[in-house]
Amino acid sequence: MARRNLRPTALGDSSLQEKEAKKPLRLLNSSKIEQPQVCLREWKCCQFKTLPNWLQDNQFLISGHRPPLPSVRECCKSIFRIHTETINIWSHLLGALAFIGEAIHFMNQEKIPLEQKLVISVFFFGAVTCFSLSATFHAIHCHSESVCKLFSKLDYVGISTLSMGSFFPWLYYGFNCDTWSQMVYWSVTFFLGLATIVASLSDKFGTPRWRPIRASIFAGFGLSGVIPAIHYISVRGFIRAFTIDPFGWLLLMAVLYILGVLFYSSRIPERWYKGKCDIMGQSHQIFHILVVAGTYANYHGVLQLAKLRGADGFCEGIEI
């Protein structure tokens, strides 16, 4: 009888021991589920060397980086904190909002012809798309590697869209008296823009190793406007182009864009002052500000050219 009672007791004890042994495992598993949420709420800025490879973009920015935040909500909340991406986010977020406001104001003016509204709306679309995608990328690229890659591609697609939108109204008004040249330049702009978009969607193109190459591609797309610019000056005359016509604004836009690309690709000044430009003064922030300034210069020039084109005698005395 004693042996008969002893066996169930032993089985009961072993079963009890197994249950007790599984408790820490359940607690461990539950802690693994809860841990990311705690980390997300209490994240702190970290150094470059502690980031995963997919977040390591600029080795000259030593500290102030966001860690991976696998939550869209936390990524969005992080735009109100100070880190390496704060100015990058807000410079283009405010730029997007500013051009949305400009577009609403422009479209609501009854005295402006519908044709002019449609032409300049292409520019507004390019500007708002570029700045919105850029701000979104810098806000949530720390979410995960897949999100980082996706929005990095969309960021460059936005740059291509801005370039195409910037060229369109200039070619429309600048070559209004020469429809054939206008169509040729539009076609070249479209196909070059499409080429940069295709390149932007390539996985290899988005890696830091290809930074100089992608900077060169976008610079080349921008420099493609040199040929129609020279054509315009040869037709209108150098003095007239820079005194009567608002060609100086187009030149200013080009200079600001090219300067921005040079800062972006060279990583100056953080290359010279490691750790001093982590939060403010880094090359990417300068690039953002110069692009916004160049876009405003472009917008102002387009408005002036539209007024000039609407005046009587715009095409008189011009030999095509």
Structural account:
The structure is a single chain. This protein has helices at residues 2-41, 72-77, 86-107, 114-140, 145-174, 179-200, 211-223, 226-236, 238-243, 247-266, 283-310. It has 320 residues and is mostly helical. It has a single domain, classed as Rhopdopsin 7-helix transmembrane proteins (Up-down Bundle), CATH 1.20.1070. The radius of gyration is 28 Å and the shape is elongated. Residues 1-12 and 24-39 have low confidence and may be disordered.
Compact description:
This protein has 320 residues and is mainly alpha-helical.
Main sheet specs: none
Average pLDDT works out at 84
Identify the overall geometry. Answer: elongated
Q: In total, how many domains does the architecture comprise?
A: 1
Order of helices and strands: HHHHHHHHHHH
Class from secondary-structure proportions: mainly alpha
CATH class categorisation: Mainly Alpha
Terminal Cα span: 118 Å
What is the level-2 CATH architecture name? Up-down Bundle
Number of helices: 11
Extended strand count: 0
What distinguishing features does this structure have?
single chain; 320 residues; mainly alpha; Rhopdopsin 7-helix transmembrane proteins; 11 helices; 70% helix; 0% strand; disordered N terminus; metal-binding; AdipoR/HlyIII-related; zinc; transmembrane helix; receptor
